[in-house]
Amino acid sequence: MKLGYQTNTWGGVxxxxxxxxxxxxxxxxxxxxxxxxxxxIAAAGYExxxxxxGNLMAYENEPDRFKxxxxxxxxxxIGVYVGANFIYPDIWKDELYRxxxxxxxxxxxxxxxxxxxxxxxxxxxxxxxxxxxxAAGLDEVTRMAAKYGLTASYHPHLGTIVQAPEQLRxxxxxxxxxxxxxxxxxxxxxxxxxxxxxxxxxxIEYVHFKDYRNGRFVPLGQGSQKFSAMLDVLKAHQYDGWLxxxxxxxxxxxxxxxxxxxxxxxxx
Length: 268
Fold this sequence. Notes:
Elements: E1 2-6, E2 13-15, E3 28-30, H1 34-43, E4 48-52, H2 53-57, H3 63-73, E5 76-84, H4 89-108, E6 113-118, H5 128-147, E7 151-154, H6 165-172, E8 178-179, H7 183-188, H8 193-199, E9 207-209, E10 211-213, E11 216-218, H9 227-236, E12 242-245, H10 253-267
Parallel strand pairs: 1-4, 1-12, 4-5, 5-6, 6-7, 7-8, 9-12
Antiparallel strand pairs: 2-3, 10-11
Helix pairs in contact: 4-5, 8-9
């Protein structure tokens, strides 16, 4: 297995301001420096990195600068994280346009994975049709990603219609999309990360490790997650892909990356 890190810790999870008035420009965005993040990730001993679509698109007109950063730090570009509402037909084509624009650039820069989160929660409650629309959208994203040589996976997330175990079961009955489990989001949503990996192992081609304690996301080893047992399940199924550590925010991003790496070295 190869070890990667998400750059969103450098600056935290925000959104692109253009999205207020333009759905096609509603990118995720970490407010920190991608250049600093890659330097720290490499120094901590990781082999690759994932980043948000908004941070990737900052290099749309400077792809050579992005490639130079990868060469400078000896890092592989694992993949990019995108999000969408999925459930509103009137804006879906604009959302898909944005995701495809991101996928095209990511593939041209050597990425392997396209990770999608989302499924909006309506003010008056979620309908069964919302899950059908999410599933249909994910099927479309999967086909589009494959066109560019990317593997698309769905990422259950707090604040979406797929945060609890029953919601994930409902979605997976409607689509064959791959699953990228984020272990802490699964726990925070009331699920068991270990059991989730066991249940959906045949769908898993990419994994996000994140620890969780007292309602907060923390570096690996500082929460209650059973990472060794999760690794046993992955190994038993010959998983040899990326394990990407994600820590949405932390006062000292470099220290958080180093702490998680030391933990991983101890259990791998």
